[in-house]
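User: New here, please read:
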Amino acid sequence: MGEGEDAVGAPCWWSHPDRPTGGGPGFRLPSGRVPAAGPVPPAPSGPVRRRRRHHRGLRIAIVGVLAVLCAGLLGGGVGAVVQGTRQGGRITLQPVTEAGVRRSPGSTADLVRAVLPGVVYLSVRTTGAVTTGTGIVLDAAGHILTNNHVVAPQGKPGGITVTFSTGQYHPAVLVGRDADADLAVIQVKGVSGLHPLALGSAARLEVGDPVVAIGAPFGLVGTVTSGILSARDRPLTSGGDSGAGPAHLDALQTDAPINPGNSGGPLLDASGTVVGVNTVLRSADPESADPFGAEEDSGSIGLGFAIPVDRALPVAEQLINTGRATRATLGATLDLGHRNGALVTAVGAGGAGGRAGLRAGDVVTALDGTPVTSGDDLVSLVRGRNPGRTVVLTVRRGGRSLSLSDLLRSAGGRAPADSA
């Protein structure tokens, strides 16, 4: 067969419907050769008739396919009309019937279901205002742990009403409060069927472990949020501009959303045990005078803080048994305006710092390995520990770095802000 010929020996010319037969500039044969210039020879009738029959068959096939599609669409439309007519002109969508959701044992839903009865919600009425918060049921006697700033938002306790997860509510009385630790215990009397929460330890948590917070943010009771433990040993001072007075906290940090109304509620680990008491949030409001105020109007930005239950439990026990609590102390006075460490201005002879060899003029740069950047940091870290615990101080004295250690002593009463 010669080049450019079809099966019957005639020249084979390719054309596009939009072009004259024989092509134009850039036109090529299937082989890639450009056809020679010259007149286009007439094609014999045989191949033309064969092509026409081929095109006619293709058109018939296309028409057949379109007819089938139109029939299907028409049938579906008729079916929909019939269905709608049978149901009074309205279409009713039926949900798919499925089995119940399968959850693995120990899921967050199981955890929440088990602990919700042990979380209560507080309404505190003071002169001209009502504040809200959350509480943790401690025992069958009706003792409830919460924050001091919840029960005494302006420094003085108000009338307290407790609402349970069942919707029932009862008045409560104040058992005791500790402004330094920002903790308080209240009690409901004559109430049966209480569900105390299991109390764990924050010491066994690691950064990255999952945690769950429960509370009543903005009055929305029973709100559950979750996240992870973001950091440990976060020294901070909260409530400095409130009547409740400043509290120095050695806190757990979490990204579980905590908002106004979560204060006093539980921070739970993956097993459902209490590891912290939700206390403050970091506000993004630049106009806020106290960025760590627990009752700021601004919402969560993923920086919430909780008092470790290891610190809260001894305080709660003392408040229940005696109505007041003690705190740990080094017996040192600090310059709160100094930065790049905690500058010691005076040391009591009988305190832990004096026994350890701490001197005026020393700069404490770490406590138990946690960096100290200011006097407030050292106060928070010391008060966040329990009396009787041995602590290790890293001290800069002159050009030397020293390590000093001793047992923390206990002290009662409200401590000066510059006393560690």
Summary: The radius of gyration is 39 Å. Helices lie at 45-86, 108-115, 148-151, 309-322, 352-356, 375-383.
